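Design job #97: recover the sequence.
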């Protein structure tokens, strides 16, 4: 029998209009089946309902229910179910070796798929490798060739423990879910694209949000030299970055920074630590740093009543707290933001932060038992919206950077993500790489991890080696953010110049790759297709990519294989996608065939395995000054690196020019002509916003040619390609 997945690959090669029309039918046994006219391609084998989530059963014609189903586009079917029971769901059945992806950012068992996972659609809490890696979406993709999205903020659970089966149940007497089929010859990308069109797409971040961002978990500790408060401590970081010429675009104050018990609830900066917050933030902005602060939907009581915070007092007076959730516990309860007055009060007071120049929030918690679990998704969605609105009202869209650890899919329109509290060791790094890939699969495209890990119990935790490997990973992450301070600052003992040098190399590389990264951030914003891509998004027909948990495509033109174990060794698999060969990006000699595996050993911490496919186009350069005030008469510069190959004669890149440009996407189109005596690379380009350089790599080195302002065409001749 021909496998279902195989059939999908065939049909996916054809434009949708040429494909057989999909049909959706309800069988006598109450299964919903999608067929392409010949084969059943989706088997929604049961529709579930029950009084409890533990007692659901398949509905049949005797169950009281209301079921409607139809295709709302050629490749998306919508199913609406209402019953008289409180819990409703669905089961999908596939071949036993099928894999399921999505739902959670957290990589259970260090895997990018959900093999043997059963969990609720909520924050995962403390776990191996990363605590609180909590982005989530009621959406899965299967290697059987389709996706399923349930449009809800209700609590639910997903169960993948039975091989060849996916099941979900929501605490709701009505649900709406969508079966999403591939639409283009990039089947999985097109499923994600259609899913985000139904759910939400990421807001476009500002360049400053991509980092490098340097922050401390507690700027009120670990003073050096003449530093005597948090404000001076941040200044000390700013100065060291300047003198070391390490690029940065932002910084943030995690708590504590305010007054009140737990430093939160009076919407202020502690004057002992920040004598002049407005003046200080203004200065930081002038040095090229955007400033963010920590916030959470949470309040703490004080045993001394007269020291209670505004947020605590107002919530007690008005009955805004969730009852019996940590009322006096170590972290305090959350406000019920479904109460309009609570929401309004909180929002009005948050406005203080943008009023003194703060350009974004690090949004913590919401999944720590401060409210009933079954409202986590609804409450976090409200809080993220509120936080977004206070910023957007002051600065306008895309002019600030908010990032949360607990977010449900619809909130990706109002917040970006960091992956929670990762462990400062290789396990934490490996899990962070897998969580980055998973974050992409649920379309939280703008993502970063605490470089070096979050919990740092001892001296030299992370070790120099762990930290350096993680810095390389962050260089090739959408966001480079690095926690220093509290006795873990690279330029202070016990670290030394080795760590400072790797930090400088990687932070400056990330800054240099900004033109590339921001272009893919814009693609994520427009289409939902993430920047960190599971290998199968780019190589859907290569089934050896399905279980690779520690490699990814970074955009379309980088293949990244971070070192996630001690000793600098690993094997790299080169996927069979739209390239036959890969080139070592840094060394520019070593070439690998697609479909092969390469073993790396003893790679020093000053290097990292990164490859480019045939025909790669990499825009890089210095398009955002940030803190680089050491550069006199700074002007933007842009270089388009090109790696032509005969086997891939035409490649395009959608370059993001900038918010303020007349057209914000410019196309670069590279064509290779294979002549009798030489090869000619032709580059056609739209206006790139600055005068740029094309840097064309070939066997004997590279050639440069100027790309003038405005649209144009250039040609470069050479004898042999690198591939
Ligand atoms: C039912 O809900 C409880 C509480 O939310 C949860 O712990 C459990 O995993 C759920 N069970 C199933 C089968 O979904
Ligand atoms: C529906 O109810 C009828 C009458 O009780 C019964 O004969 C039949 O088997 C039931 N059908 C299903 C599918 O349970
Ligand atoms: C699946 O998970 C359960 C519970 O965590 C575990 O007991 C079982 O061994 C796992 N099965 C497989 C096949 O991994
Ligand atoms: C801001 O910078 C100016 C000039 O360096 C300095 O005099 C002033 O003290 C700074 N203000 C704050 C609040 O840091
Ligand atoms: C601060 O709040 C926590 C609970 O959030 C409580 O345990 C602690 O006693 C409080 N501190 C004071 C000084 O009241
Ligand atoms: C409670 O706090 C107030 C205001 O800070 C202070 O004046 C008072 O001494 C405190 N009371 C006790 C018992 O510590
Ligand atoms: C909170 O209420 C107490 C009285 O219970 C009062 O003494 C205190 O000043 C209030 N806190 C603020 C910040 O207003
Ligand atoms: C389902 O939601 C209701 C509120 O609508 C809540 O009372 C109940 O505890 C929830 N059940 C589960 C298992 O989460
Ligand atoms: C994760 O949580 C556990 C249990 O509370 C704790 O011991 C550990 O330090 C935490 N790790 C991180 C990285 O926060
Ligand atoms: C930095 O410290 C590491 C140990 O953590 C050591 O291996 C290395 O040699 C030191 N480098 C310098 C330049 O001191
Ligand atoms: C990949 O496909 C080949 C050919 O269909 C098959 O033999 C192999 O078992 C598959 N491997 C995986 C990991 O699915
Ligand atoms: C090709 O190689 C020949 C011989 O080395 C050399 O003379 C010629 O300049 C090269 N052509 C190009 C376009 O680089």
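Job complete. Output follows.
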């Amino acid at each position: 029998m021909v496998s279902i997945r195989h059939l999908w690959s065939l049909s996916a090669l054809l434009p949708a209009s040429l494909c057989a029309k999909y049909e959706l039918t309800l069988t006598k046994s109450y299964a919903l089946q999608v067929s392409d006219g010949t084969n059943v391609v989706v088997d929604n084998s049961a529709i579930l309902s029950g009084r409890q989530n533990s007692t659901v059963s398949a509905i049949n014609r005797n169950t009281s229910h209301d079921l409607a189903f139809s295709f709302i586009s050629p490749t998306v079917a919508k199913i609406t179910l209402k019953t008289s029971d409180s819990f409703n769901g669905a089961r999908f059945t596939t071949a036993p070796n099928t894999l399921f992806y999505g739902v959670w950012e957290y990589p259970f068992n260090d895997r990018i798929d959900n093999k043997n996972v059963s969990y609720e659609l909520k924050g995962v809490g403390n776990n191996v490798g990363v605590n609180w890696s909590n982005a989530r979406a009621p959406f899965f993709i299967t290697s059987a060739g389709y996706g399923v999205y349930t449009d809800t903020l209700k609590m639910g659970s997903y169960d993948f423990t039975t091989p060849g089966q996916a099941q979900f149940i929501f605490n709701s007497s009505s649900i709406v879910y969508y079966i999403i089929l591939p639409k283009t010859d990039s089947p999985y990308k097109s499923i994600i694209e259609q899913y985000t069109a139904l759910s939400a797409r990421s807001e476009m971040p500002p360049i400053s949000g991509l980092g490098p961002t340097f922050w401390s978990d507690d700027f009120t500790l670990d003073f050096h030299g003449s530093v005597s408060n948090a404000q001076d401590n941040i200044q000390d970081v700013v100065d060291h970055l300047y003198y070391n010429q390490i690029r940065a675009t932002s910084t943030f104050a995690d708590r504590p920074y305010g007054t009140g018990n737990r430093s939160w609830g009076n919407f202020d900066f502690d004057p002992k630590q920040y004598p002049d917050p407005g003046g200080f933030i203004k200065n930081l902005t002038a040095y090229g740093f955007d400033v963010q602060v920590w916030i959470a939907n949470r309040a703490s009581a004080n045993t001394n009543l007269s020291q209670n915070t505004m947020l605590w007092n107002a919530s007690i007076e008005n009955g805004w707290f969730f009852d019996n959730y940590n009322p006096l516990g170590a972290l305090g309860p959350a406000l019920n933001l479904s109460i309009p007055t609570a929401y309004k009060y909180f929002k009005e007071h948050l406005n203080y932060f943008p009023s003194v120049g703060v350009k974004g929030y690090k949004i913590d918690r919401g999944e720590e038992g401060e409210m009933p679990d079954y409202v986590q998704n609804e409450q976090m969605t409200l809080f993220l919206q509120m936080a977004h609105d206070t910023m957007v009202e002051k600065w306008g869209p895309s002019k600030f950077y908010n990032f949360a650890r607990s977010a449900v899919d619809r909130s990706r329109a109002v917040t970006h993500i960091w992956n929670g509290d990762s462990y400062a060791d290789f396990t934490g790094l490996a899990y962070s790489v897998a969580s980055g890939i998973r974050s992409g699969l649920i379309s939280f495209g703008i993502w970063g991890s605490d470089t070096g890990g979050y919990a740092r119990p001892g001296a030299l935790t992370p070790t120099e080696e762990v930290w350096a490997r993680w810095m390389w990973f962050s260089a090739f992450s959408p966001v480079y953010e690095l926690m220093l301070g509290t006795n873990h600052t690279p330029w202070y003992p016990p670290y030394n110049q080795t760590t400072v040098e790797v930090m400088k190399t990687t932070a400056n590389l990330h800054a240099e790759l900004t033109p590339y990264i921001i272009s893919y951030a814009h693609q994520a914003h427009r289409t939902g297709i993430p920047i960190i891509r599971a290998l199968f998004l780019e190589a859907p027909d290569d089934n050896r990519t399905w279980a690779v948990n520690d490699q990814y495509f970074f955009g379309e033109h980088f293949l990244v294989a971070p070192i996630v174990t001690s000793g600098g060794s690993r094997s790299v698999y080169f996927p069979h996608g739209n390239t036959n060969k890969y080139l070592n990006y840094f060394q520019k000699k070593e070439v690998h065939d697609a479909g092969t595996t390469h073993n790396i050993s003893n790679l020093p911490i000053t290097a990292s395995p990164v490859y480019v496919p045939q025909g790669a186009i990499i825009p890089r350069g210095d398009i955002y000054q940030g803190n680089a005030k050491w550069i006199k008469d700074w002007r933007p510069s842009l270089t388009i690196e090109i790696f032509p190959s005969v086997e891939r004669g035409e490649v395009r890149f959608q370059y993001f020019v900038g918010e303020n440009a007349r057209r914000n996407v410019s196309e670069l189109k590279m064509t290779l002509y294979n002549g009798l005596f030489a090869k000619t690379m032709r580059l056609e380009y739209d206006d790139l916003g600055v005068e740029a350089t094309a840097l064309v790599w070939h066997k004997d080195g590279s050639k440069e040619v100027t790309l003038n302002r405005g649209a144009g065409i250039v040609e470069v001749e050479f004898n042999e390609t690198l591939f």
